[in-house]
Design goal:
alpha+beta, two-stranded antiparallel ribbon, Arc Repressor Mutant, five-stranded antiparallel beta sheet
C-alpha cells in the first residue's frame, strides 16, 4: 500500500470528519479510497461518448495571483470548445464562472481538468452529456444571400445520445 499526505484547512477537515462519521467509515483513509474510486469510475463513464455538450462550473478567488489571467489564457487556448461563459461576483473575493462547452469528450474533459487544477480554483464540477453529431448540411441560404451572395449556411446538429 502506498501512503501520501494531504493538507486540509481546519474547517474542511471537520466537515470531512463529520461526513465520514455519518457514512460509517472507520477512518479517513477508507473514505478517501472510496471517493477516489467513485471519481475515477465516473470519469470513465463520462468519456464513453465521442462528442459531448458540457457545463463546467467553478469558483475562484479573483485576488489569487495571476489566476484570472491564467484562466482567461486557458479559455483562449481552448476557444474551439467554448460556446459561452457566464461570470458572477459572489462577494468581494470570489467569483463563479460557468462555461458551456461542446466538442470531443476527451478534449472537453482535459480542458476541465486543466482549469480545475489551477491553484485558486475551488468547487470545479463538469457535467457531461454525450451527444450524437449529425453530418454537416445546409438550411436555406446564408445571410449573405440578402446582399446578393447566395451561399448556403453549413452547420452541424447535435442531439443528446439516447
Amino acid at each position: 500500500m502506498e501512503r501520501f499526505t494531504i493538507s486540509l484547512d481546519e474547517r474542511l477537515a471537520e466537515q470531512f470528519d463529520a461526513w465520514i462519521t455519518g457514512r460509517g467509515y472507520a477512518n479517513r483513509s477508507e473514505a478517501i479510497r472510496d471517493l477516489l474510486r467513485a471519481e475515477i469510475g465516473k470519469s470513465k463513464l463520462e468519456l464513453r461518448g465521442k462528442h459531448c455538450i458540457a457545463c463546467l462550473s467553478y469558483v475562484f478567488n479573483h485576488h489569487e495571483r495571476d489566476l484570472a489571467e491564467r484562466l482567461t489564457a486557458l479559455h483562449h487556448r481552448h476557444h474551439d470548445l467554448s460556446v459561452s461563459t457566464m461570470h458572477a461576483h459572489l462577494d468581494h473575493d470570489h467569483c463563479l464562472e460557468t462555461a458551456i462547452l461542446r466538442g470531443p469528450t476527451a478534449e472537453v474533459a482535459e480542458f476541465a481538468d486543466l482549469l480545475c487544477a489551477e491553484r485558486g480554483v475551488h468547487h470545479g464540477k463538469l457535467n457531461i452529456i454525450s451527444v450524437d453529431v449529425h453530418e454537416q448540411h445546409t438550411h436555406g441560404l446564408h445571410a449573405q444571400a440578402k446582399r446578393g451572395v447566395a451561399r448556403p449556411a453549413r452547420h452541424v446538429h447535435i442531439k443528446p445520445s439516447a
